[in-house]
Amino acid sequence: MNSFKGRIIINPEDKNTTLSQHSFREIFYELYPRLYSNSLKLVRDEFVAEEIVEDAMLALWERRDKIGEIQDIKSYLYIVVRNGALAHLRKHRKESSQDITGIDIEDHDIYETYIIEEELHARLFGALKELPEKCREVFLLSCIYRMPYKEIGKELNISVNTVKSQRSRAIEILRGKLGNSSVILFFLNNLC
Fold this sequence. Notes:
By secondary structure, the chain is mainly α.
């Protein structure tokens, strides 16, 4: 099994691969927040969303000796969570005359959009952690918090020109780290 860096892909020829407790813990801490967020967007109940994700993680742990049968653990978990959320909604839709989430349960495009959004945010914030400290501060204040250059300069005790150059440097580094896919570039251009 490859080490966990975003996507876990299992060698399809090695059906005897097992999931170690350490690898499971890594997967859990890396994916739990995103899986929970997606589950919550569907069921709109914190407790239920938590239970759905915990059930998905438990299902993965119970299959740890047969992990070689799962080619992509991340996709597997997203599917298990989505199916758990949809099952919950179907069950509770029968109890209620209206759809409690306002989402058409059969509309999987909405869920896929959430997943893509979450992945983009996770990739962006992962890349942000790798930026030099000043670049990261300037990028966050400028692009995320939308603070004017002058205010950033005052807060960080640097000139407006330094703010501009650090922001440009951060964007350039992020483009290099995140790749040149049109989705990433569109995301970065709209963010800044």
